[in-house]
Design brief:
Elements lengths: L5 H8 L13 E5 L17 H12 L3 E6 L10 E4 L3 E3 L4 H12 L7 E2 L4 E5 L6 H17 L6 E5 L11 E4 L3 E3 L7 H9 L16 H16 L9 E2 L11 E8 L2 E14 L3 H6 L3 E13 L6
Parallel strand pairs: 1-2, 6-7
Antiparallel strand pairs: 1-3, 2-7, 3-4, 4-5, 6-8, 8-9, 10-11, 11-12, 12-13
Length: 303
């Protein structure tokens, strides 16, 4: 029986990428060889019980814990890297490493060096999902092949979420989530980041905002980009209903350069199967998502 990939199923159903841009506020990256990654990540090969416990407790405390490697790229990685502070350090003694992890959970940043580069975290976690290996590793290799290592810190990492939208990337400390990335998109993606801009084709939306706001804001940014205008965010107007069901419609307004826009959305149920294992097992659940209908100049209803 041939493998059915969750990314293919997701595309066939038409589930939108936009609106799922929430990113972790705090990330701890621990250098660990990719060949030793396991699921869950804190039970990886050669990891001591004490370090396993420290990583699990950090994850339970709400941090995103990622094992990272730099295969296919020059250079080496520091033992521990904290984001958004962008501070890294090496630890020769495991006890010191565990103490640094525990202190960071409690809000105390360990002593280290500061990295001025943005970090691009690319999920290549084949242990978690085949799509992350299928799309993530080729995207990672394409990025490191062309990126200036003085400008970008690019790592491959364990699961960061969004397997059905692989390749999944997280840019920190900007807290930008990207999905459906590919090797072919790598040059345009890096060029946008070089300019300090968001890469709109694969951007999921602004972290910390409700799903319809993320979608509407991104639609307005794309509308402006098509007309040669670059925007970092778009003020919106309108009210999101408290109770929604399939078919609920919503119109939000935006103003760009003095021009008023109307952004129309609707709520729709999708069968969501988050990874390949769920597809194979016939699992999943119906999930209400917001979808963009149209965006255009606001029309007057006055007679």
């Amino acid at each position: 029986m041939s493998h059915v990939f969750c990314t293919d199923v997701c595309r066939e159903r038409g589930e939108p990428l936009e609106g799922l841009g929430d990113a972790p506020q705090r990330v701890l990256m621990l250098a660990w060889p990719r060949g030793k990654w396991r699921t869950p990540r804190w039970e990886s090969v050669d990891m001591s019980p004490a370090l396993t416990r420290a990583l699990h407790e950090a994850s339970q405390a709400g941090l995103h814990v990622a094992l990272v490697d730099k295969v296919e790229a020059p250079g080496s990685l520091p033992t521990l890297h904290a984001l958004p502070e962008n501070v890294f350090a090496d630890f020769a003694d495991e006890a010191d490493l565990i103490q640094a992890i525990a202190a960071y959970v409690d809000g105390q940043l360990f002593a280290g060096q500061r990295d001025t580069r943005p970090t691009i975290i690319c999920c290549t976690d084949s242990r978690r999902d085949a799509c992350c290996a299928r799309h993530g590793f080729s995207t990672y290799k394409a990025l490191v092949a062309i990126a200036d290592p003085k400008r970008f810190n690019i790592v491959q990492a364990t699961h960061i979420g969004g397997c059905r939208f692989a390749a999944s990337l997280l840019v920190m400390p900007q807290r930008q989530r990207y999905g459906r990335m590919s090797a072919g998109l790598a040059p345009a993606f890096l060029a946008a980041l070089e300019r300090g801009e968001i890469y709109l084709p694969s951007y999921k939306g602004r972290s910390g905002q409700p799903e319809p706001v993320q979608i509407a804001e991104l639609a307005a940014m794309r509308w402006a980009d098509e007309r040669g205008r670059t925007l970092s965010d778009v003020p919106l107007s309108g009210t999101i209903p408290d109770h929604i069901s399939e078919g609920t419609r919503l119109t939000l307004g935006a103003e760009i350069g003095g021009e008023r826009l109307s952004i129309h959305l609707h709520a729709q149920n999708f069968m969501v199967q988050g990874n390949c294992a769920t597809v194979a097992e016939g699992g999943g659940k119906m999930t209400l998502r917001w979808c963009l209908d149209s965006i255009g100049p606001e029309t007057s209803t006055a007679s």
